[in-house]
Amino acid sequence: MLLLPLAFFISVTWNFEGGSAGRVEVVDAAHVRVGAAGEKDQDGRNRQANWYSFQVAGVKPGIPVTIDLVDLPGEYNYQANRGAVNAETPAVWSEDGQTWRHVDDFTYDPAEPKMTLRLTPRGRRFWVAHTPPYTNKQLETLWKNVRREFRRAEIGRSVEGRPLWLWSTGTGPRTIWLMFRQHSWETGSSWVGEGAVRELLRNPELRKAYTWKILPMADPDGVARGGVRFNKFGFDLNRNWDVNGVAKMPEIAAQRKAILASGGGALFLSLHNTETAEYLEGPPVTAPEVRALAERFHAALVAKSSFAPTRPLSFAGPVAAGRMTVIHGLTREKAWPAFLMEQRISLQPKYGRRPLIEDRLRFGGDLVNVINEVLQ
What we know:
single chain, alpha+beta, Aminopeptidase, 8-stranded mixed sheet, 5-stranded antiparallel sheet, globular
């Protein structure tokens, strides 16, 4: 590591909500290497390095800065991979911590692997992240803006004692469930959730037609610490839905209890992000009326939103015990039409660019209107 003179103060920090980085090496006065911290499951396997979020300070305005993102390889479903960060998923950066844009000047070296970012800041600090962050604090701000038309109930506490919220609105006879942020790195899910909430606030007809129940932050601990997809004990808050363990999985236990205690659900949807895939997955059932609903839902999303699937409509297949997703669980326990949606963070063909915050917000509004249409 290069020892710099005391007059030089470049630094990389992540001691804020959602912040995450691993090892940091200062190469020279305008070049740093930042490792992805990554996260492993309860077996010490399946390392995921899908999230980084840090601040670079002490830089000189107008002078280019080079950042190498390293320590990217990991595992998925017990299969080694080169990591989620690649040539299709460049970072976003912000000079005020609020307005985010994609890094345009970057290269990817698959041999190490390594992502190299080149930025020219106008001030003495800036922020870098995998996708535009969305924190517990931002969710609380949203609540303060919409609470006149929404109800909020604490359904439990996370491993670290954070409240697990259930938001509700509307008076309709049928219930629609929306679930966000089962995996803490998937910040685009929360931006979609905010767009959906704001559209429900704006449109009283949607609130008259249905009762909307929203789980806005399934993993508040992971979001706070800058996690990836596991809770503090390494459990996946989507893939371990059928494992009972209140002590080590209070998030799943509370969410399952709240859902199963409710009346019938006309539709359940869990929103997710991936790097390059986009698709809708329906429940593992063959009932003709459920398949017809799934086909209408998929077609309407394609026609009336930015949804651009990378594969045809699919239905969840069988899984091993202990690896059940929320849609597997709800189909088994409630026989509800439960869906899971993945949205890519890479190039979106309907935009001709990579999605940003305003795109996610718009999609959230389109989503609740599409759901209303297909359930008529």
